[in-house]
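QA checklist item 7 of 12: single-chain prediction sanity check.
[x] sequence parsed
[x] length recorded as 262
[x] structure emitted
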Amino acid sequence: MRSALCALLLALVACSAAVLPVEHSLDGGQSWSKAGDLTLALARRGSSAVLDRVPLTAEQQSALNKLAAGGGLYRLRLPSAGAGSPPVAASFPVHCLAASASDGGLALDLLDGGHVAGIALNAPCGQRIAAELQLPASQAVAVRLPTAAPEVLPQLVPGQVAGDAAAGLGGVGLQQDAAAGAAGAAGAAGQQAAGEGRGTGQQGGGKGKPQPDERTWLQKNWMLVMPLGFIVLNILGNAAGPQGQQRPGAGGAPARPAGSQR
């Protein structure tokens, strides 16, 4: 019935299907036995996988219960993509087996070509272990496909040529933005150079043309005027001295007392 359904899907939605044998180990990887068949269907609108388990024998059920009592690991493996390559394997605590046996409890990781990359536990597991583990006859397995990697844009280096930056990014709008950025940078550099030239001219002009001195002649030459003033005052003082001494004798000889005349 399942094969007929898959054949119908192949005809309707052009799906590709594959059946992969799955093995498990109940003794720590010392021996392996068939656990079931994994039917993988890849389609354009989605992929699906179903694990059909092989019923456990009484001996295998006893080994599984013993493994659960000892707290060991449950191991799975299935063929890998390339021929001759080691199989894809997974292991998890046996108390997680009940969670892994539910629909979606296991996840199958695929590569771009649909090849199997890995299988892993896909559900949280509890701490309690049942007295006797019972595995379902069939369960759905989640399929995880690779996602496209995000596009990484190159980083623009300051001062990079606008044409090269725009060509690396690709796009007319980016070329215009890069050209505008380069023009703005050139304009800013020109303004800075012009400002430096004006500052240099102002400094040179200040040295060649000193500011005019608005002081008066007396304010500029007061140190020369003061000695000349002292000299003039000294000359005037010396000239006034002899004139004061000659004034008493100018009217004749000094008068004598009347009794002294003969």
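[x] summary fact logged: Residues 162-202 form one domain.
[ ] second reviewer sign-off
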